[in-house]
Amino acid sequence: MRIKLNSIMVEDQTRALKFYTEVLGFKKKSDFPVGEYRWITVVSPEGPDDLELVLEPNANPAAKTFQQAMFAQNIPLTAFEVSDLKAEFARLKEHQVAFTQEPTPMGPVMIAVFSDTCGNLIQLYQPL
């Protein structure tokens, strides 16, 4: 058994695909219609056969309530590892990404948190 897919709820799948590929730098792996929505996954160019992130439409009222509560409490929905957090922070700031937390040492890691423009806070971390 292995983890192959992880989902993140997004307000608008087209906008999310644009942000996750053009700003964050992930690569689109799957994109096909499923009813009124699409099955969209993105992967890291550093591990295209590793974990796929599913950009799930946020049509479920329970999921939307959960997403909004997490955002309101400043709690990231997921985290991505980077090798140089300060460089990634600077790169994303050039793309006008809004951070809620700048790079901050937290024990064995340095973390930063940004809004993905799709209703979620995402944590970046660098093991120290």
UniProtKB/TrEMBL annotation:
Pfam family, one: Glyoxalase
PROSITE patterns: VOC
Regions annotated as coiled coil: none
Classification via SUPFAM superfamilies: Glyoxalase/Bleomycin resistance protein/Dihydroxybiphenyl dioxygenase (SSF54593)
Residues spanning the signal sequence: none
The name this protein goes by in its record: VOC family protein
Domain VOC: 2-127
